[in-house]
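Worked problem 6 (solution included).
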Amino acid sequence: MTAPTRGSGSTPTVAEHRIVVPAHLGVAILGPRDEVLRAVEDGFPAVRIHVRGDQVTLQGPHTDVELVGRLVDELVEVAESGATLDRDVVGRAVQMLRSQSARPSEVLTQNILSSRGRTIRPKTAGQKTYVDAIDRHTVTFGIGPAGTGKTYLAMAKAVQALQSKRVNRIVLTRPAVEAGERLGFLPGTLAEKIDPYLRPLYDALHDMVDPDSIPRLIESGTVEVAPLAYMRGRTLNDAFIILDEAQNTSTEQMKMFLTRLGFGSTMVVTGDVTQVDLPGATVSGLRVVEDILSGVDDVMFCRLTSTDVVRHRLVSDIIDAYAHWDARSNRG
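Solution. The predicted structure is:
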């Protein structure tokens, strides 16, 4: 690589930067039909990007050229790891570089679990912080809006821990609370009524474990998926325990769940405090637990935001729009 060259005069106006890309990564850096290159150009319209052989030349405003140069270097490291580059990866990498929240190559190359031909890894700086917290703490809270990977990444860490024999079983639980409905109004037996609440946990599990093995794992007790009420009176040793949709627990239920922790176990609690479906007079256990556990050792609270959303681009915009609306309503 060569250092950027600037235009004449006391104020730099134009810079040029040349990068030599490893020959075996040329196709990956450009992307299919130059998709990756187009994404970089769309993100930095003031920078002219010229590719000739293994050399990439950047021309434009010095600050932008410097940032694109760092971006290409990071994308080379990501491609070297075997990760696939696409427009979404470029967008997330640009966001991290601009916010200086993390090095994209450190986030986008951290593999959690490889299953069924795909690799699960964090995709944002906030997600990496969350995943690292699970590794380092006995109890981790992942709090944030829909689409930030709270439950999915926790499930991946649980399966990783089981496969590496750090735990003997996985326990997945949710409170049986639904927006605008009560269990009694739903048809069927108790098990049939509860199943829809647990379905998202089954769906995530199917992504990470051979579906044919799931009934055997459940029958043997290696994987347990159950409503929160089934946790009462138990002590869970050598287990990876996930409480999902924790915003729909009362303070008493949250205390009951946390005190199920046994020796050799890891707990992850996930939820979104903006989507509480409890009756009006009931205080959400997730909303107050940080105040209660403040200062308790080996407990970590991770807050994910709209910048950590990895669903459709509009999901992040919708979350921000509702947050602004809530802020205006509260002021009123």
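Discussion: DSSP finds twelve helices and twelve strands in the chain.
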